[in-house]
TrEMBL record:
InterPro entries: FAD-bd (IPR002938), FAD/NAD-bd_sf (IPR036188), TetX_monooxygenase (IPR043683). It catalyses: a tetracycline + NADPH + O2 + H(+) = an 11a-hydroxytetracycline + NADP(+) + H2O. It comes from Streptomyces misionensis. NADPH binds at R44. Residues 8-206, 300-356 form the FAD-binding domain. This is Flavin-dependent monooxygenase. One of its GO terms (biological process) is response to antibiotic. Pfam families: FAD_binding_3 (PF01494). The keyword Iron-sulfur does not apply.
Length: 372
């Protein structure tokens, strides 16, 4: 049973949770390697803005020693939640979702990821290293081998699956796979909105805007540099576009279908669909079972979406970072890897199950299921 002090630890996935884990481990003098399938840090856009909660995401950043750097980049003014009447666009006196803290400043996901990456020792992250599978534990010493897509392998004492919704590590501990939960988000965007689209900027406000009714919703979110990200959300089968005769890569066809779908909404809100620049990105919502648990297995564990994929309503990234910090602290505090993983999982699993239930309720409140 390996000691935590000299354990070979491999994090699979350079997302927020895996990077937070690596950073906290390094702050305590522990060795860790992060394997990421993407070729470079900028291989793809990192997504929209995140509200970082005091008790979860900010707690992880405090553990990582990055609170000041986070505050320098964060946007407290973007905590504003604005709810509008779909028929009139009138502002409604309704508070934001209950998952939000009083102090939850926003930050672009890409900025936060870059902050964590820059905090790590050189060569911690090994890019273009796609893990395809993890072997069962060795009978003699409990070690695991990572199998990479280039045919190479690496033997480690602990594999941390931080590789997201479609984790290649998860099958080593769980047979669960993500399932579509009936909600699709179509993402669009506006650049330099304050200058080029001032009426839409005024409609959205400084933070996040939401209008919803009857299983349909429009969300618009401020990012940095005047960018606004829009999500057109609705309940439908995952292949809705096939029945509608719409090709997802045909922006005008998608736009026309969505405008028809939201018929009767206020014209200013429909402009968020009509006037977007470029196409739409389909983001069907997938979730893991609740609760998602597994029998403890030697030399391996999960964090973030790999462990508890839930609806995207503001908790996932925060929990991933807290998972990473908690696991790192357990690896520092406990004498063996197995004791550390058991201690971490005893806290993470029930916490994530409760969070997943809360997120499902928030999504159902925004987009009520048919007949609800």
């Amino acid at each position: 049973m390996p000691s935590t002090a000299n354990a070979r630890i491999a994090v699979v996935g350079a997302g927020l949770g895996g990077l937070a884990c690596a950073r906290v481990l390094q702050r305590h003098g522990r060795s860790v390697t992060v394997h990421e399938r993407e070729a470079t840090p900028d291989a793809r856009p990192q997504g929209g803005s995140l509200d970082i909660h005091g008790g979860t995401g900010q707690a992880a950043l405090r553990a990582a020693g990055l609170s000041d750097e986070f505050r320098a980049l964060a946007r407290p003014e973007s905590q504003e939640w604005r709810m509008l009447d779909p028929a009139t666009a009138a502002v409604l006196p309704v508070p934001g979702p209950p998952s939000h803290d009083d102090d939850s400043p926003e930050i672009d996901r890409g900025q936060l990821r870059a902050l964590l990456l820059d905090s790590l020792a050189a060569d911690t992250v090994r890019w273009n290293r796609a893990v395809t599978a993890v072997t069962p534990p060795d009978d003699k010493d409990g070690t695991r081998r990572l199998l990479f897509d280039d045919g190479s392998t690496e033997t480690v004492d602990l594999v941390i699956g931080a590789d997201g919704a479609w984790s290649r590590v998860r099958p080593s501990v769980s047979e669960a796979t993500p399932t579509y939960n009936g909600v699709t988000f179509m993402e669009a965007g506006f650049a330099d909105c304050d200058t080029r689209h001032p009426s839409l900027a005024a409609l959205v406000g400084h933070g996040t805007m939401l209008a919803s009714t009857g299983g349909q919703a429009l969300l618009a979110q401020r990012d940095s540099h005047g960018h606004i990200r829009v999500y057109v959300a609705f309940r439908a089968p995952q292949d809705w576009h096939v029945a509608a005769g719409v090709a997802l890569d045909h922006a005008e066809a998608v736009r026309g279908h969505l405008v028809d779908l939201f018929e009767g909404w206020d014209e200013s809100l429909l402009d968020l669909v009509r006037r977007n620049e470029g196409g739409f990105i389909a983001r069907p919502v997938f979730v893991l079972p609740v609760p998602h648990t597994w029998e403890h297995a030697p030399g391996i564990t999960l964090l973030g979406d790999a462990a508890h994929l839930m609806p995207p309503v503001g908790l996932g990234a925060n929990l991933a970072m807290l998972d990473g910090a908690d696991l790192a602290h357990a690896l520092v505090a406990e004498s063996t890897v197995e004791d550390a993983v058991r201690a971490y999982e005893s806290v993470m699993l029930p916490r994530s199950a409760q969070a997943a239930r809360e997120c499902a309720k928030v999504l159902d409140d925004i987009l009520p299921p048919q007949g609800a």
